[in-house]
Amino acid sequence: MKIFLTTSTQLGNAKAFLIKQVLTVAAKQQSNEVVADANQADLVIALGGMPNDNRLQGKKVFVADAENAFNAPETILIQAMAEAVDYTPHETQSAVQISPDFSNKTKNIVAVTACPTGVAHTFMSAEAIAEYAKKQGWNVKVETRGQVGSSNIISPEDVENADLVFIAADIDVDLSKFEGKPMYRTSTGLALKKTAQEFEKAFKEAKIYTGASTAKVQSSEESRGERKGLYKHLMTGVSHMLPLVVAGGLLIAISFMFGIEAFKDPNIAGGLPKALMDIGGGAAFHLMIAVFAGYVAFSIADRPGLAVGLIGGMLATTAGAGILGGIIAGLLAGYVVKGLNSAIQLPASLSSLKPILILPLLGSAIVGLVMIYLINPPVKGLMDALVEWLNTMGQSNALLLGAVLGAMMCVDMGGPVNKAAYTFGTGLIASGVYTPMAAVMAAGMVPPIGMAIATLLARKKFTANQRDAGKASFVLGLCFISEGALPFVAADPVRVIVSSIIGGAVAGAMSLGLSIGLQAPHGGLFVIPFVTQPLMYLAAIAIGAIVTGVIYSVIKPKLAEK
Fold first, then answer.
1. Cβ neighbour number for residue 550 with a 10 Å cutoff
2. What is the pLDDT of residues 346-396, one digit of tens each?
3. Cα dist. 339→100, 174, 185, 345, 366 in Å?
4. Catalytic residues, which ones?
5. DSSP 3-state assignment of 431?
């Protein structure tokens, strides 16, 4: 008898490969043959669940448990021959074609939030979703996927009872546990600022999530714009790179506290400065570009892209191509692997070799050779020129660049423009240029602190709730969480943003004009002791925040009298 084996996407490539191997051997021992073409098969064994495959129409199919198939393949084969039934497509196939039913008055909502840094937007959007859902009388559970991992984790029972899965994520997140449920995807920013609008759209536009087949079902969603896709890919890389930069930068800064060149002498403090430098600069900083490129590629091409991106990023690091080389390596690796995956079609019996052998091998060879011969030499020259210019630029250029970076940090409070400036400052840390990062963080602290100042200077222009929000905004600002100003942006966007841009530009210009350096890309008040001129840095932040606070307190209209 000719047998065709098919596996669920949830099994994983390695496990599926092993199960197929043991079943193939067992079939031969029973004088049966495992075939690669479903059309030739007399019997189909579906491992892990009934597939959606038109080739199986008219075939006898047996759905087998994967663990049982691996542990007792001979028994499964005998059982399959005796109990196989006529093929019936999986219920989600028809479900994709119809709109989910949201007619129930009391809805059960599960949501996931995730942002690039895994700090502010992740938790603020989660709070907005939870509060809005509760006001509507819905049952809601929001899982946050931040830098410290997942919290308030959605259980299988929660998924089973859910009427809608609401995903607010700016990076790639694993959604496999929501297979078969109505799902709507948006950004953390929209979920935070336009919660009601996004839920209204969710109930109209949600589609059944079907894992691997979702790309085909929701092709229109993927074609909304390559720019949006590129932003998501780059932010996925930034998200995974950030802990390395923070840890490495702080360890280097602590090493400098023993003396700027103390790490060169292994006899100072028992070699501790050198050890800290080896950990921070020799390990963490050496890995950061590779990790960034690896996860950019992962975002584009999933797991097969990760290894290729890591290799391309490490080649950029060793060649001195810096963050620009890492960006190119990550994007190149992702799209090369994605293209190879689409172009290379193998029989089902060999398909498991693609992600673990063929794609990493060919992808690494292609990307590696392109990086070594075509990308790294000119990009290294460009990065060297940029670093040289940043290190030797005059006072006027420093003031202008600082003002531009500072203004960018305040345009959208954690959005794409803010993240572009932040990525620029963070990426230059790997090239040994620390002044842009200081300017970026100083400006990012200005909007929330400035709003707090405005609520003190013009108390009568703010409601009691806004004055309370000002207190929280001040604390968030001290922690370098620009999103603390978002409640004020939502209420009065033009005036708040204009005020913040002016104050942020002042802070950024002062910081860069004074050549203040910072090696840690996050932390706010807690990392100020590690900047090169702490008192002047505090002055830059304070002056920028005061400028913002004074301007907004003046231009904000008075409260309407009731």
1. 18
2. 876 677 788 888 999 999 999 999 999 999 999 999 998 988 888 888 888
3. 33, 22, 25, 11, 12
4. 115
5. coil
